């Protein structure tokens, strides 16, 4: 409002001063006219000075306007300063409140954390108490178990006194157990050595077009725990092989209607590698590049190296691996401690491993096999029963399935089972006779399926030996001993067999006795010799 009033006064003063200025201008012009005419007088000088005094109104109004404007500007600045101070004070109050809230929240979190720590301490105390109680129960259980074992041992010793009429017989049984414990250590050692060999080869030759070697599987009497002669043990392992990239294996299972195929072959087929060639660029597709380009830029295919025609050749495969072994073994971390020598073999890899510190020798045989799907049946490089086995023949092998069954029996029957001791003793006395150890093994497998496993304790040792003799005599008289895995519908789930095996007709392992009367007469004489050897071994230890 004051500003409007000042502006009004200023406008009025300007108007008045404007009119005065016009009058003064007129008088000045008249004065100049008079001066030109020479009629100037000192009387008009006072009038001119009086006229100039009218300018003070303009200067006064201008100063008043500046003063009022400056005063308003200061008021505005003071007001803004006060508002800014209030805002800063409000912000400081908000910050103080926020800090207080954070402190309260931290205090709450600390309290919650303390509560959780206390709860955890209480839980730890409870767990500790429960663990102590559990340990006490376990100690009590172990003590009870030890007492039961002591009672069982005492009972077995009492029963041994009844069954084992000779102290020498007890010595033989105990010695058999000790020998089995010694062989287990060598089995582990052989598996470790062969694992080092195969892993090193896989690392060195990972990008080749040769068969891809898988971890070896121990098979045969050594890994089943019943080798007949400890000093002549041959540790056999089956090395599964898979087709390299760009190839695929197609097993062909011998003649139609033959369940346990002895004339199986493995057909090798090339497959397209264009996708890998485009993505990785490390190979050339065998199917879509010329032979000249492949020969100049890539290693030959498996069909060109280890196959005869379209079928994988056993002898070429064994010769190829035997050639790789010495160079690969030198790269293993155990080469300085164990010497390795490759022995002649056409269908497998036979090795002699020598401990450089003790001079002890261990004989190992590596067989090669192609697995049938996810089954425990392999097409292996072992020799067939025929006199001559073609180099492209890969007989069907049940060695892995049989070892798995022995492992199942060992887990179910427990460590005091005598089935392996019985088999070991029979295998020992069969050396030099016409019976095959596989026939005795098959007899034992049938008895394990017939007689409950709890009746194979150490105290039943002599009874089970007698059962083996009786069962062998029965099979020889009837000239019938069926293969254990064929036509057997009671196999445990741990052993994975083809469906055709369970529904197949039994395969008679003594069929040759029906066809050859002279052979039957010889095995009957051998059976009498077998009984005499067993009795001498039990009674006299030799």
Mind explaining what this structure looks like?
The protein is elongated. The chain has 16 helices and 12 strands. A hairpin with a 5-residue loop joins strand 9 and strand 10 (361-371). It is 59% helix and 11% strand. The chain is an alpha+beta fold and 542 residues long. The protein has helices spanning 2-37, 43-52, 56-163, 167-204, 220-224, 274-279, 291-297, 302-305, 314-329, 399-413, 419-429, 437-450, 461-478, 499-503, 511-515, 517-540, and strands spanning 212-213, 217-219, 234-242, 247-252, 265-270, 307-308, 311-312, 338-343, 349-355, 361-371, 378-380, 396-397. Helix 1 packs antiparallel against helix 2 (43-52). Residues 94-113, 132-141, 148-161 have a biased composition (Acidic residues). The chain crosses the membrane at residues 46-70.
Radius of gyration in whole Å, from Cα?
A: 54 Å
Give the helix level as a range of percent: 55-70%
The DSSP helix count reads 16
What is the straight-line distance between the termini? 140 Å
Range of strand content: 5-15%
Order of helices and strands: HHHHEEHEEEHHHEEHEEEEEHHHHHHH
**What global shape is seen?**
elongated
Low-confidence stretches: 14-19, 37-43, 158-164
Strand element count? 12
Report the major sheet. 8 strands, mixed
Mean pLDDT score: 80
Structural category is alpha+beta
Quick structural summary:
Residues 435-487 form the Mab-21-like HhH/H2TH-like domain. The chain has 542 residues and is an alpha+beta fold. It contains 16 helices and 12 strands.
């Amino acid at each position: 409002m004051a500003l409007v009033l000042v502006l009004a006064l200023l406008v009025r003063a300007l108007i008045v001063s404007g009119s005065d200025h016009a009058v003064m201008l007129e008088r000045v012009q008249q004065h100049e006219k008079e001066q030109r005419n020479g009629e100037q007088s000192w009387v008009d000088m006072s009038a001119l000075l009086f006229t100039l005094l009218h300018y003070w109104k303009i200067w006064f109004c201008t100063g008043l306007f500046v003063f009022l404007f400056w005063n308003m500007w200061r008021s505005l600045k003071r007001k803004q300063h006060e508002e800014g101070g209030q805002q800063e004070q409000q912000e400081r109050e908000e910050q103080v409140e926020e800090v207080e809230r954070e402190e309260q929240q931290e205090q709450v979190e600390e309290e919650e954390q303390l509560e959780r720590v206390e709860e955890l301490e209480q839980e730890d105390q409870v767990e500790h108490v429960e663990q102590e109680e559990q340990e006490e129960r376990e100690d009590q259980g172990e003590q009870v178990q030890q007492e039961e074992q002591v009672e069982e041992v005492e009972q077995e010793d009492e029963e041994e006194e009844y069954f084992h009429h000779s102290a020498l017989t007890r010595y033989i049984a105990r010695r058999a157990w000790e020998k089995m414990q010694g062989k287990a250590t060598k089995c582990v050692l052989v598996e470790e050595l062969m694992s080092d060999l195969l892993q090193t080869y896989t690392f060195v030759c990972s990008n080749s077009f040769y068969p891809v070697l898988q971890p070896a599987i121990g098979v045969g009497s050594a890994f089943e725990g019943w080798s007949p002669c400890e000093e002549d043990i041959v540790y056999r392992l089956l090395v599964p092989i898979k087709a390299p990239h760009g190839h695929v294996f197609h097993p062909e299972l011998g003649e139609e209607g033959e369940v346990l195929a002895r004339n199986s072959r493995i057909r090798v087929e090339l497959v397209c590698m264009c996708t890998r060639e485009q993505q990785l660029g490390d190979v050339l597709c065998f199917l879509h590049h010329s032979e000249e380009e492949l020969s100049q830029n890539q290693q030959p295919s498996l069909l060109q190296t280890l196959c005869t025609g379209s079928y994988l050749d056993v002898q070429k495969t064994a010769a190829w691996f035997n050639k790789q072994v010495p160079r690969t073994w030198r790269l293993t971390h155990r080469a300085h401690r164990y010497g390795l020598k490759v022995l002649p073999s056409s269908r497998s890899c036979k090795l002699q491993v020598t401990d450089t510190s003790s001079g002890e020798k261990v004989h190992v045989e590596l067989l090669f096999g192609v697995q049938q799907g996810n089954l425990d049946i392999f097409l292996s490089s072992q020799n067939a029963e025929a006199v001559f086995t073609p180099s492209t023949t890969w007989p069907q092998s049940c060695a892995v399935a049989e070892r798995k069954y022995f492992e199942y029996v060992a887990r179910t029957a427990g460590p005091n089972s005598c089935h392996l001791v019985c088999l070991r003793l029979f295998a020992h006395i069969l050396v030099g006779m016409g019976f095959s150890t596989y026939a005795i093994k098959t007899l034992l497998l049938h008895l394990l399926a017939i007689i409950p496993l709890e009746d194979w304790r150490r105290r039943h040792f002599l009874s089970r030996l007698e059962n083996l003799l009786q069962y062998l005599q029965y099979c020889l008289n009837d000239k019938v001993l069926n293969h254990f895995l064929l036509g057997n519908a009671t196999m445990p789930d741990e052993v994975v067999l083809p469906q055709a095996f369970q529904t197949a007709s039994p395969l008679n392992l003594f069929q040759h006795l029906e066809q050859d009367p002279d052979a039957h007469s010889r095995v009957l004489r051998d059976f009498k010799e077998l009984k005499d050897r067993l009795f001498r071994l039990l009674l006299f230890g030799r």
